[in-house]
Design brief:
Elements: H1 2-9, H2 39-45, E1 51-56, H3 59-76, E2 81-86, H4 89-98, E3 107-111, H5 112-120, E4 150-162, H6 163-168, H7 197-208, H8 218-228, H9 238-246, E5 252-256, H10 257-265, E6 270-273, E7 281-288, H11 295-305, H12 308-318, E8 321-322, H13 330-335, H14 348-366
Helix pairs in contact: 4-5, 5-14, 7-8
Length: 372
């Protein structure tokens, strides 16, 4: 039991770009409010603002947040009115940037790559365990650069395939990123372009699988050109990927283990593969927006996201690997296992700098190859 619990903590994922430089500690502020029911709690609770605006992913994440997390938080802090703004990470960071002079969002939960873009834009406040006590439970190898946020969960990228269609068509069960470039899978792939993290991570991993990296992306572009010829078009959303797997117009896609397991739980006959060359991990990072109107409520909410109860819910209900040493049920711990020795650590600063160039080149050189 203990061994399995520890395996969930053996996180090698983000030791490259997410390893922090020494950021300045956050300014001293009022301590986070304590649960009501004690004199200390009653005194501290007054210090929380009466409003908090949280931005994060929609769909199942939004449902869990509103139906369970908000309600649990309000049991402890009933004076705080919670509002949720849903969207993909790129949209959320863009919105925070647009509102920089007058923030309307207090707290975001976004993917690591987008969080890094926001850090470079100066969008986030520095956080510390002084104001967010449960930060001390997040391992050092998940530390965010400049203490500009806190990882609250993560999930690996890989290949997902429809087991029924693979069997019906006698297609290969994927074990490698390069399996997506085999002639026999032509007409059976659905993928997003590199504007999405799914497509971008795939291109980078195809580079790694062929002697390159995010710093030498050429092999990735070459392989993506081949894959483009195997598809009628690139999908524009995760919902399209799901639909294509469901209606059996495609047998393979590339996305996260969390998404694959979630779809499997709804009855979609899919399996997730962490390729033999390895893969990256997608962290979800909670950040405080710089200049937010409700900073104390934001700190209390981030601390709440790192509690055992919430971390367990992320794992059991959304299949995200927890960011803290929470003891998971044995079956869940086993389901979330993958070979962490093969985790590839992307340099998010390189990604932040190069993604727009990659997208321009992709639209000119790769996208026109679809359907050919």
């Amino acid at each position: 039991m203990k061994k399995k619990a520890l395996s969930v903590l053996s996180i090698f994922a983000l030791t490259g770009s997410l390893l922090a430089g020494c950021g300045s500690p956050a300014p001293q502020a009022a301590a986070p409010a304590q649960p009501s029911g004690s004199k200390e709690g009653a005194s501290a609770q007054v210090q929380l603002e009466d409003t908090l605006v949280v931005a994060g992913n929609g769909a199942t994440v939004e449902k869990l947040m509103k139906d369970e997390f908000f309600k649990k938080f309000n049991e402890k802090y009933p004076n705080v009115k919670l509002t949720y703004v849903s969207g993909v990470s790129t949209e959320i960071v863009a919105k925070v940037k647009a509102q920089k002079n007058s923030p309307q969002i207090d707290l975001t939960i976004v993917e690591g790559g987008e969080q890094e873009k926001g850090r470079q834009e100066g969008l986030w406040e520095t956080v510390s365990a002084t104001d967010i006590p449960n930060m001390k439970n997040v391992p050092a190898d998940l530390k965010i650069k400049d203490d500009s946020g806190v990882v609250v969960n993560f999930t690996p990228m890989g290949i997902t395939y429809n087991t029924e269609l693979v069997k019906e068509k006698n297609l290969p069960v994927p074990t490698s990123w390069n399996d997506l470039t085999k002639p026999e899978v032509k007409g059976n792939i659905t993928m997003t372009d590199v504007a999405s993290n799914f497509g971008r991570s795939t291109m980078i991993m195809l580079a790694y699988a062929n002697g390159g990296s995010e710093k030498n992306i050429e092999p990735g572009f070459q392989k993506m050109a081949t894959i483009a010829g195997y598809m009628p078009t690139f999908a524009k959303s995760a919902a399209q990927l799901q639909q294509n797997l469901q209606n059996k117009s495609a047998a393979y896609t590339t996305w996260t283990m969390a998404r694959s397991l979630t779809q499997k739980g709804t009855g979609l006959p899919v399996e997730f593969v962490f390729p033999e060359e390895g893969g990256n991990i997608v962290p979800n990072v909670a950040t405080m927006v710089k200049g937010a109107k409700h900073p104390q409520a934001a700190k209390a909410f981030i601390d709440f996201l790192l509690t055992d109860e919430v971390q367990t819910a992320y794992a059991t209900k959304l299949y995200y690997n927890p960011a803290t040493p929470v003891k998971l049920p044995d079956d869940v711990a086993k389901t979330l296992e993958f070979d962490r020795s093969k985790v590839v650590n992307f340099d998010y600063e390189v990604l932040s700098k190069e993604t727009s160039n990659w997208l321009d080149r992709f639209n000119k050189e790769i996208a026109p190859n679809t359907g050919k």
